[in-house]
Amino acid sequence: MLVVFAHSTSGPTVATLHRGDGVVLQLPGYDRKYRVPHDLAHFATERTFEMSGGVFGSIAAGAVFAGMRVLSGRPRHDAAARSRLVLDGCKQSLGLAELIAGMVHHAVETGVPEQAPALVRKAWGALETGEPPWPDERAAEAARVLSELAGDFEAAGSVRVTWPDHLVAAVPPARGIRRGRRGRT
What is the pLDDT of residues 65-87, one digit of tens each? Predict the structure, then answer.
């Protein structure tokens, strides 16, 4: 999935997502106060941590968040139901992605990217006991990637990135729908 982050005419950042199914979506940012776009932090962190159930993996699977709009293409006949299924199935991983991306974003936004591993560890400790499932190097890499993308964004006013196909969220089966043929009586 191609993602283009750019400044919008109204101020905040806008991400334009070109999904594999031909649908082009717009994801508005709500980050006027930040130098580094928050959704760019999600992208860098989720890709580096290989979070298929985060914001971008969910969108690639068919989720549409509030505020998003279809720019072009033809959504599936069951697009709204599919979006609900994906969002319900990814609820926990979306929360984790928000927490971890927030820590990486904070480290880069404040100009101290080397603090990302400690912030991620601290955030993990607020959720779970024990060590995080990722090495500190993963958080450091996410901060490095975000710093590079933020620099490109500041210099050019936009940045084009690709979301990997292997990081698309799984679509849970619909509940309450029986599949297959019914037995004859």
Answer: 999 999 999 999 999 999 999 99
For residue 179, is it within any domain?
no
Q: At what angle do helices 79-89 and 91-109 cross, to 10 degrees?
A: 70
Q: Which residues contact 22 (CB under 8 A, 6 or more apart)?
A: 73, 74
Q: Is residue 173 part of a domain?
A: no
CA distance 164 to 25: 17
- Give per-residue pLDDT as tens, 133-150: 999 999 999 999 999 999
Helix axes 116-127, 91-109, angle to 10 degrees: 150
Domain that holds residue 140: 2-165
Judge whether 185 lies within some domain.
Answer: no
Report the number of distinct structural domains present in the chain: 1
Q: Is residue 172 part of a domain?
A: no
Asked if residue 169 lies in contact with residue 85, where contact means CB atoms within 8 angstroms, the answer is: no
Largest CA distance in the chain: 71
